[in-house]
Write a structure and sequence with these properties.
Order of helices and strands: EEHHHHHHHHHH
Mean pLDDT: 86
Structural class: mainly alpha
Number of helices: 10
Low-confidence stretches: 1-7
Number of domains: 2
Strand content: under 5%
Strand order of the largest sheet: 1-2
Radius of gyration: 18 Å
Largest sheet: 2 strands, antiparallel
Helix content: over 70%
Distance between the termini: 40 Å
């Protein structure tokens, strides 16, 4: 069981960390084998053999090999963390709050996986619809967070969806540009630059 500790950090319990480690090992192995053998040459059995688990364990985590390659997609931190970030940026409005939440996710995320995943989708475009579905679900969750934290100022009922769609698009642009570039700049630094432009243009 995870707990939220000071400064808004989410710390999973031991059992959850073990499950996360197994899931990550399955994903990384699937990505590597797909890169080596192609999507048609990738098999669940080969992934399980390398990780040292049964196929039943694999399907406890992923419905298919394609799902293992796509992964879960982005997910917001716990509500308490999201609401705290919005509160810290309340004076600058919901756009600033939504941007800060996404930047927090990038700052605490894993950069190599972003680049690796982007390269995989370039190579296997049939996976793109599944990825877009993951982003659509994430966008809805961000819109709910915006609606929950946008304050009493009168705004159109579509405002949360508009802010979320724009913020998620900015994040996708930053990740795609960074993943295909030759620059040594970190994903976090690059994304901060993109969001600085995003906030100024929408201010």
């Amino acid at each position: 069981m995870g707990v939220v500790v000071r400064e808004g950090m989410y710390v999973p319990g031991l059992r959850e960390r073990k499950k996360q480690a197994t899931r990550q090992a399955l994903r990384e192995t699937a990505l590597r084998l797909a890169e080596q053998h192609g999507l048609d040459g990738l098999t669940v059995e080969a992934v399980c053999a390398e990780v040292g688990v049964s196929t039943r364990t694999f399907f406890n985590y992923f419905p298919s090999k394609e799902d293992a390659l796509v992964g879960d997609g982005p997910a917001l931190p716990p509500d308490a963390v999201v609401d705290r970030i919005f509160a810290e940026h309340a004076a600058d409005g919901p756009i600033a709050g939504a941007s800060a939440v996404l930047l927090h996710m990038v700052d605490t995320g894993t950069q190599p996986d972003v680049r690796h995943k982007a390269q995989m989708f370039e190579r296997f475009p049939t996976l793109v619809p599944a990825l877009l579905a993951k982003f659509a679900a994430f966008e809805r969750s961000l819109a709910e967070a915006v609606a929950r934290n946008m304050g009493p100022a009168p705004r159109p009922d579509f405002y949360p969806e508009l802010v979320a769609a724009c913020a998620v698009t900015a994040m996708r642009v930053a990740a795609k540009r960074w993943s295909t570039g030759d620059r040594e700049e970190s994903l976090a630094s690059y994304t901060h630059g993109v969001f600085e432009v995003f906030r100024k243009e929408l201010a």
